From TrEMBL:
Gene3D superfamilies per UniProt: Single helix bin
Start-end of Polar residues biased regions: 60-74
Biased composition (Basic and acidic residues): 27-44
UniProt organism field: Solanum melongena
Residue ranges, annotated region (Disordered): 1-107
Name listed for the protein in its UniProt record: Transcription factor HY5
UniProt record similarity statement: Belongs to the bZIP family.
GO molecular function, one term: DNA-binding transcription factor activity, RNA polymerase II-specific
Pfam families: bZIP_1
GO cellular component: nucleus
Length: 158
C-alpha cells in the first residue's frame, strides 16, 4: 500500500510532455494560479496565435489543434511582436527620411526664391538711386533757373 502511495506521488511529480518542453525546474514548483518568471517571459512564436485554441491545417489537409495558455490576471498582454515593432520602426525611419528630404528641398527652393528676390530688389534699388540722382539734378537746375528769372524780373521792374 505504501508503495502505491509512493509511486502515485512520484508519478504526479513527473512532468508532462508540455512541462518537459519548457525545461524549467521552477515550472514544477509553481502553485496553481501562479506562473513562474520563465512562463511570464516566454513569448509565443510569431505566427499570430492568440489565446485559446486555434486549429491549423497542414498540406495534407489534416488539421492540428494548438494549445496556447490563456491570459491570467497576473500576466501582461504581449503587445506587438518584435517583427511588427521592427517593421513599424523601419516605416517610421523611411517616413522621416522622406520628410527630411522634402524639408531640404523646400529650404533650397525658398533660398533660391530669396536670392532671386534679393537680386530683383538690388536692381530696383539701383534704378531708384539713379532716378533720385537725376531728379535732384533737375530740381537743382530748375531752382537755379527760377532764381535767375525772378532776379531778372525784379531788375526789369526797377
Amino acid at each position: 500500500m505504501q508503495e502505491q502511495a509512493t509511486s502515485s506521488i512520484a508519478a504526479s511529480s513527473i512532468p508532462s510532455s508540455s512541462e518537459r518542453s519548457s525545461s524549467s525546474a521552477l515550472h514544477l514548483e509553481h502553485k496553481e494560479g501562479m506562473e513562474s518568471d520563465d512562463e511570464i517571459r516566454r513569448v509565443p512564436e510569431i505566427g499570430g496565435e492568440a489565446t485559446g485554441t486555434t486549429s491549423a491545417s497542414g498540406r495534407d489537409g489534416s488539421s492540428a489543434t494548438l494549445q496556447v495558455q490563456p491570459l491570467t490576471g497576473t500576466q501582461k498582454k504581449r503587445g506587438r511582436s518584435p517583427a511588427d515593432k521592427e517593421n513599424k520602426r523601419l516605416k517610421r525611419l523611411l517616413r522621416n527620411r522622406v520628410s527630411a528630404q522634402q524639408a531640404r528641398e523646400r529650404k533650397k527652393a525658398y533660398l533660391i526664391d530669396l536670392e532671386a528676390r534679393v537680386k530683383e530688389l538690388e536692381t530696383k534699388n539701383a534704378e531708384l538711386e539713379e532716378r533720385l540722382s537725376t531728379l535732384q539734378n533737375e530740381n537743382q537746375m530748375l531752382r537755379h533757373i527760377l532764381k535767375n528769372t525772378t532776379a531778372g524780373a525784379q531788375e526789369g521792374r526797377k
